[in-house]
Design a protein that fits this description.
By secondary structure, the protein is α/β, with parallel strands linked by helices. Helices cover 28% and strands 15% of the residues. α12 crosses α13. The longest helix has 21 residues.
Length: 761
């Protein structure tokens, strides 16, 4: 019978707390219960949410049962249409929504300002995909503030609670704790989180404890904003030094990556009991925590990527774009790349056992399919997913495609369009069916359930209704299990005031800044040029980045900017505008930025492919492969993607110019190069001109100034070997780590992984 907890008969011990838009019930035994509609059930001296609005306690509503049992019960009650919605992962959402930019959102058919809506109100599009398409996995991309994130999360949960079955929303996020959203991949922004180095910077800090602190801090900040899935860590073994996504990995060393995968996943997924928290409910087993940690209300699901390992991209090109879709294995190391998953993320030391989710990459793992001989995108590959991941490895967590792989392909190869590699001749529904039958549970970036429903119908005709229903409910149970494990079905709400106090707190910021300091590598310090004396006059040249294509392949105009201002320098130094006036120069640089594809080259009769260069001056690939390993695309009438003999120019070649000009204008004075390393740069052109070199991997300006002026020490070591020259890079095998000679500087130091003057390995 449905009963209100306000009734006095059969009294029970609980505390009822009224929050801004929901109510919490803190009970003596069991988890905190949160509800916006006030519908709860009293039974056996406990409180439960009445999610199905029946007044009867259904198994999936009973927090005393293990997560898998609750998930199986609910999966068996859902319609195929509702399951199809669970199998969707929304496109990127901006909070608040805007009609401008890549993530549009309307409010009552118009702009937010015209509608008088709050920043945290749901857009028309969000309301539609929640109710119409039954979407329950939502990707948060941009958030205005902590308060807005928390309130928007609560609005999403209120809307979901009002719909049949009361299935909550699993909000996810790309990495958002780095210095900026720019770089190798779109990264989430906003929300005032603490700032830490990028993935490769955590390797440079070479501290397992620091990595654990980061993962635990990120989990706490995510949960405070209502986020329960991290679309990271990126555990690819980055054996190809030219690959644009290398900075988000932990580098080329397999053992390092296995260790970091364990620490990150454990830190994200484990809810730990603290003196403040009291008893913690273990949703995995339906019982109180035994004191060693568990799946619980503090857990964030780790979606590790990218199976079976995206590190060996041919020539450093990237599979976001059709021109970069091939991963190659000239060194025969395919299984080495798998091992970070099988020995790391899928074999955790902590209580959660394995990463809760995994994402295959867009790429075609060329020649890896030894059974069928197919060269198709990984999610389309029966061998890569069904035979290896589900079969041989036995992975039973959620498998989610990378974003946007089922739509029709863009006619232009130089595009950020759909990536249905190898499945171009199938219909959209047939692509979904093939992926589902491989054992994939979820489709990234898809908001519409129609193609999945159509795939189900086609599958019923081909394989029989019993087969298709069993397969769909299997995915539903996996997807729901993660939501039960993280406590969303019992209390999906967050307190905005507590969120604001926790996210980006002074303590968390201090931990992030300490990690940044640990990650900075002192490569050179001739004549003890560092630390600099406070109060000196410094010259900082303007940076120029030439016109180039963005991550989304839109043209960006030339950019000129000052990397440091007098306001930033503050107490440390006086900024002067001519090198002749200065006591020292601070030259801020990036590793070389080059584009691997040129439409102009195609117009001039070429194949469009250019070398990805790690040097600043124009590079001609005289020793590149004459014939590419992989090739073939319906947009091309050739298979050889070689760029041999072609020249490419770095968009930031002027970084080197400014360093050389400063050295020429300041003989005998310190010229300090501060280099943001997205990739292992060839430093033969720059190193001789620099008195000192700091390599950084996502560090805030105030932290760099602390190091430059002696308030902090650069504690990092190189996370990868810097190549001697581009010929070494061209000779190496994409799937083999650091199989090239290291650069030796003018002082006789070899820039190998583990080198750093601030702290030796």
């Amino acid at each position: 019978m449905y009963m209100s907890v306000n009734e006095t008969e059969n009294p029970m011990k609980y505390e009822k707390l009224q929050k801004q838009s929901y109510t919490e019930y803190h009970q003596e035994y069991g988890p905190v219960i949160g509800t916006a509609n006030g519908k709860v059930i009293r039974q056996d001296g406990c409180i439960f949410r009445d999610l199905a609005d029946t007044g009867e306690l259904l198994p999936y509503e009973d927090w005393r049962l293990p997560a898998a049992e609750r998930a199986k019960d609910l999966a068996g009650r859902l319609s195929i249409e509702e399951i199809a919605g669970l199998m969707l992962y929304s496109s990127h959402q901006a909070v608040p929504g805007s009609l401008e930019g890549p993530f549009p959102g309307h409010y009552h058919g118009t702009t937010r300002a015209e509608a008088g809506a709050f920043a945290w109100d749901l857009t028309d599009e969000q309301k539609a995909f929640l109710s119409g398409d039954h979407v329950r996995h939502v990707l948060l991309a941009v958030a205005e503030s902590v308060d807005t994130s928390a309130r928007w999360s609560n609005e999403m949960q209120k809307a979901a609670e009002s719909l049949p079955w009361g299935i909550p929303v699993n909000i996810s996020s790309d990495p958002r704790h780095g210095v900026s959203s720019a770089g190798a991949e779109f990264k989430s922004t906003g929300s005032g989180v603490s700032v830490w180095p990028e993935g490769i910077g955590m390797t440079a800090a070479h501290s397992v404890e620091t990595a654990r602190e980061f993962a635990e801090t990120a989990a706490a900040e995510y949960r405070a904003m209502g986020i329960t899935t991290a679309l990271w860590p990126q555990i690819d073994t980055a054996t190809e030094p030219r690959w644009m996504r290398l900075e988000d990995t932990w580098g080329p060393d397999t053992e390092t990556n296995i260790r970091m995968a364990k620490v990150y996943c454990d830190g994200l997924q484990t809810t730990r009991q603290t003196p403040e928290s009291g008893s913690i409910w273990d949703f995995e087993h339906g019982c109180p925590d035994d004191g060693h940690g568990c799946w619980g209300a503090g857990s964030v699901i780790a979606m590790v990527k990218h199976w079976p390992g995206a590190g060996p991209m041919e020539a450093g090109r990237d599979a976001h774009y059709p021109y970069g879709k091939f991963a190659v294995y000239p060194g025969g190391r395919f299984r080495d790349h798998m091992s970070v998953f099988t020995e790391g993320a899928f074999k955790l030391d902590g209580p959660t056992g394995m990463a809760g989710a995994v994402m295959p990459y867009y790429s075609v793992s060329w020649g890896a399919d030894i059974r069928n001989g197919e060269n198709v995108g990984n999610s389309y590959s029966e061998y890569i997913i069904r035979d290896l991941l589900r079969g041989e490895v036995g992975y039973d967590g959620v498998v989610c495609t990378d974003w946007g792989i089922t739509g029709d392909p863009d006619p232009q190869i130089d595009s950020f369009g759909s990536r249905c590699y190898g499945a171009e001749n199938l219909t959209v529904a047939e692509r979904h069916l093939r992926i589902i039958m491989n054992g994939v549970d979820q489709f990234g970036g898809n908001n519409e359930a129609g193609p999945i429903i159509e795939a189900y119908r086609i599958g019923c005709d081909r394989y029989g209704q019993d087969v298709m229903e069993k397969r769909m409910r299997e995915s539903a149970a996996r997807l729901l299990r993660g939501m039960f494990r993280t406590g969303l079905f019992d209390n999906p709400y967050v307190d905005p005031q507590k969120s604001a106090a926790l996210v980006g707190s002074s303590g968390n910021r201090a931990l992030g800044q300490s990690a940044q300091q640990q990650s900075v590598v002192l490569l050179k310090n001739a004549g003890s040029a560092l630390p600099l004396r406070k109060g000196i006059r410094v010259y900082v040249p303007q940076r120029t980045i030439a016109e180039r294509k963005s991550f989304f392949r839109t043209m960006m105009p030339e950019k000129k900017f000052m990397p440091v201002t007098q306001e930033m320098l503050g107490k440390y130094a006086v900024l002067v505008h001519a090198p002749q006036e200065a006591d020292a120069a601070l030259v801020f640089m990036e590793s070389p930025l080059t584009d691997p594809y040129s439409a102009e080259d195609v117009r001039n009769g070429g194949n469009g492919y250019l070398p990805v260069s790690l040097q600043y001056r124009p590079y001609t690939a005289e020793n590149a492969r004459k014939v590419s390993i992989a090739g073939g695309d319906f947009r091309e009438n050739f298979t050889n993607r070689s760029y041999a003999g072609k020249t490419n120019i770095a968009a930031n070649e002027s970084d080197l110019d400014q360093l050389l000009l400063a050295r020429a204008a300041m003989p005998g004075k310190p010229v300090i190069a501060i280099m943001r390393m997205h990739n292992p740069a060839v430093l033969s052109e720059a190193e001789p001109a620099a008195s000192a070199i700091l390599a950084e991997f996502g560090v805030q300006i105030p932290v760099l100034l602390q190091i430059l002026f002696g308030e902090a020490q650069p504690g990092g070591v190189l996370p990868y070997t810097l190549p001697a020259d581009m010929d070494e890079v061209e000779r190496h095998s994409e799937d083999v780590g650091e199989d090239y000679a290291a650069y030796t500087d003018s002082m006789g130091n070899r820039y190998e992984r583990g080198f750093g003057l601030g702290r030796q390995k």
